[in-house]
Give the backbone structure.
Amino acid sequence: HEAIEISPIYMDARVNIAAALMQTGRTEEAMQHYRAAMRLSPGEALIPMNLAVALMGDGRLEEAADLFRQVLERRPDDPSAHGALGVVLARQGRSDEAIPHFKKAVEASPSDAEMRVNLGTALLKQEAWREAHAELTEAVRLDPTNISARKNLGVLLARQGLLLEARTHLEEAVRLAPDDDGARKNLERVRALIQEGADPGP
């Protein structure tokens, strides 16, 4: 903190203090330091990224989206910025706008399971079944313990009438996260449908 008192030009000190404040839940104070650091170093992309993440955590999604767009204006191929902007848009219920950004992120980081989960989930919400299935299946292959991938793939398969396959993924999701009420309820629904003889599979 002494560096800031001596001279306001120490951008790194601002960023370090902001990060420390974020860890202690003092988001508003952290954002003030990030904004100060941005004024001191307007060309640095990492600072607006960090501020945008803080804004996301504070529920200020539109402000976060604007900052991620600013980063992409300077670094149009930045996979982290594309992925983060996609998350913001998806949270706002704008999955159709999120999908191109998730695709950019996946193209840059094809082995990132979480990126594929985000893309697959957005595609699922748009009822793009085939593409969603491909992305979520690959996410499970990359990370078999990814709970979101298992849950969403289970939901997709159930909607397609593939109840036995859906059950497999939902059972694994519940095994991995026994306190996940959503996964447990979906599994109960699928099991009930199978018991009713609704499964068209072998």
The chain has twelve helices and no strands. Confidence is low (pLDDT under 50) at residues 1-18. The first helix runs from residue 2 to 6. Residues 8 and 40 are 8 Å apart (CA to CA).
